[in-house]
Amino acid sequence: MSQTNPPPHRPPDDMRKPRSDGEQSRERLRLAAMRLFAEQGYARTSTREIAQAAGANVAAISYYFGDKAGLYRAVFEGMCPAPEANIAQYDQAHFTLREALLGFYRQMLAPLQQDDGAQLFLRLWLRERLEPTGLWAAEIDNSIRPEHMALVRVLCRHLNLEQGDDEVHRLAYALAALAVQIMVGRDIVTAITPQLLATPAAIEQWLHKLARYGEALVVAEQINRKEGTA
């Protein structure tokens, strides 16, 4: 009598396939938190609200992020590009001044060309400045400072200076301010002249205009130095 071998053991389907439930749950929590933190601020947003908005339980926040502070940090830092990636767009020795400024403004205005999540992050960024939790100070040290110093290097290169002085730093802040005004005042621009931010092409035009405005500021600094008024 022949003996029939038993069929090979097969694990259940949910054990054979890598599960993505955890990643999806974590991302839902992160997106829900970003929206609520941006709308209400850190202090006024509860973990219960976040969990409810994400369709998860409160324990999931502890599991994936540790606590509300850990979730907030994950939201804030997750939306900040590495400074090296931003700097690479404008601090290149072979770039002309126009190319460097175009790259500088492109990385600054990148959130305006992205989806609603990026717009929420701009609101969260403003809230962190108005209601600091400590992450803004870290952002200055870890991202804004190195990016500013990279711009100073670019300006020194094109002003034929060995190192930056106070006037070069002033110039760097002024150049950044051109873009910051558009980012921070986006609602004002949209209310008064909506066509200026309505499409990706409109924002692309801003980049080229800002680069030219920036060149004029650099030329003004060159004139100041020749006249001894730097």
Automatic annotation (TrEMBL):
Keywords: DNA-binding, Repressor, Transcription, Transcription regulation. Residues 10-25 have a biased composition (Basic and acidic residues). GO terms for molecular function: DNA-binding transcription factor activity; transcription cis-regulatory region binding. The keyword Methyltransferase does not apply. The keyword ATP-binding does not apply. InterPro entries: DNA-bd_HTH_TetR-type_CS, Homeodomain-like_sf, HTH-type_TetR-like_transc_reg, HTH_TetR, Tet_transcr_reg_TetR-rel_C_sf, Tscrpt_reg_YbiH_C. PROSITE patterns: HTH_TETR_1 (PS01081), HTH_TETR_2 (PS50977). Residues 1-25 are annotated as: Disordered. Pfam families: CecR_C, TetR_N. Residues 23-83 form the HTH tetR-type domain. Residues 46-65 bind DNA. This is CerR family C-terminal domain-containing protein.
